[in-house]
Amino acid sequence: MGLGLLAVGGTLAALVVANWSYILSVTKSSVAAAAGGAAAASLLALMGLALLYASREVRPGAARSAA
C-alpha cells in the first residue's frame, strides 16, 4: 500500500509540475489551485514513504523497552 501511494503521489506531482502553465490558464492564473494540486500530490507520496518506513522489519536487537 505504501509503495502504491508513493507511486501515485509521485506521478501526480510530476503531472502537476509538467502541466503547471496549463493549470494556470484553466484556473485563470490561480496559483493557489496549482500549488494545492502539487501539495496534495506531494503529501500522498509522503504518506506512502511513511507507510513504507512503518512497515519495515524490526531486527530483534533493535527493539527498546518502554520501561
Report the sheet with the most strands, covering strand number, pairing sense and barrel closure: none
- Overall geometry comes to elongated
Number of domains: 1
Beta strands, count: 0
H/I helix tally: 3
Helix content: over 70%
Structural class: mainly alpha
Mean pLDDT: 88
Could you list the spans in which at least 5 consecutive residues all have pLDDT below 50?
A: none
Order of helices and strands: HHH
End-to-end distance: 33 Å
Radius of gyration: 18 Å
SS strand fraction: under 5%
Task: Provide a concise account of the structure shown.
By secondary structure, the chain is mainly alpha-helical. Helix content is 72%, strand content 0%.
